[in-house]
Amino acid sequence: MYTLEILDIDENTSDYEKYKGYEIDEERIFFIGDKRTNSRIGIIKNKNEEIKFIFNFNYVGVLPKIIFNSKTKLIFLGAYDKVFCINTDNYRVLKQVNYGNDIVFFDFIELEDKILIIFEMSIYMINDKGDIIWFYGAPEIITDYNIEKTKLKIKFFNLNYTTEISLDTGK
Predict the structure, then answer these.
(1) For position 37, what pLDDT does the model report?
(2) What is the Cα–Cα distance from 156 to 161, expressed in whole angstroms?
(3) Cα angle 56, 62, 63; round to 5
C-alpha cells in the first residue's frame, strides 16, 4: 500500500519546514510540467512511511492521485496533465501512459483488470500494465461522469447534453 503526500513548498507555508526536514536530494525529484512558481511537491511513501518517489508538478487546482496495482506491482500516478506508470522494484517511471497533449488530469476509476483515466477533455481505458485499450476525445470540458453497467455517462460544461460511451470500446 502506498500513500501520497502533497507539500506546498513556498517558503511562506508551513509545508516548507516539513519539506526541508525531509532533506530531499534535488536530483531525485521527477518533474511533471515546467518549473513554475505555482508548483508543489508530491511524495509517494510505502506502508512503512519510507519515501519511495518524489515529484514536482504544476498545481492548477486539481491534486494528483495514485493507485497501486498489486498484481502488476505498478503505481499509476496522475498529476497535472500526465499519467505515469511507476515500477515498484526500482521506483522509476516505466512510461507515460497518455499521449501528452491532454489538459488536466482529473481521476482514476479502477475496474476489474482495467483503469479508466479521466482528463479535462479526454478519457483513456488502460490495462493493468498501463497499455492503452482505447481513447476518447471529448468535444467539451468534462464536468461529471459515472458508470452505469457497461457504459460511462459523461456530462459536459457548455454542451447541454449527456453522452454515453461503451466501457469496452470507448464509442
Answers:
(1) 67
(2) 7
(3) 50
User: Which residue, among 110, 111, 134, has the nearest Cα to 123 in the 3D structure?
Assistant: 134
| Furthest-apart CA atoms within the chain: distance in Å | 50
User: Do 70 and 113 contact (CB within 8 A), yes or no?
Assistant: no
Contacts of 58-67 with CB under 8 Å at 24 or more apart are 58/32, 58/33, 58/34, 59/8, 60/104, 62/104, 62/105, 62/106, 63/6, 64/4, 64/6, 64/105, 65/4, 65/105, 65/107, 65/108, 66/2, 66/4, 67/108, 67/110, 67/115
CA–CA separation, 91 and 96 (whole Å):
14
C-alpha span between 143 and 141 (Å, rounded): 6
Please say whether the beta carbons of 143 and 155 come within 8 A. yes
Sign of the alpha-carbon dihedral angle for 134, 67, 108, 38: negative
Q: Please indicate, yes or no, whether the overall pTM of this predicted structure exceeds 0.70.
A: yes
- 26 pLDDT band (50/70/90 cuts)? confident
Q: Which residue has the cell 519546514?
A: 17
- Kind and range of the H or E run holding 113: none
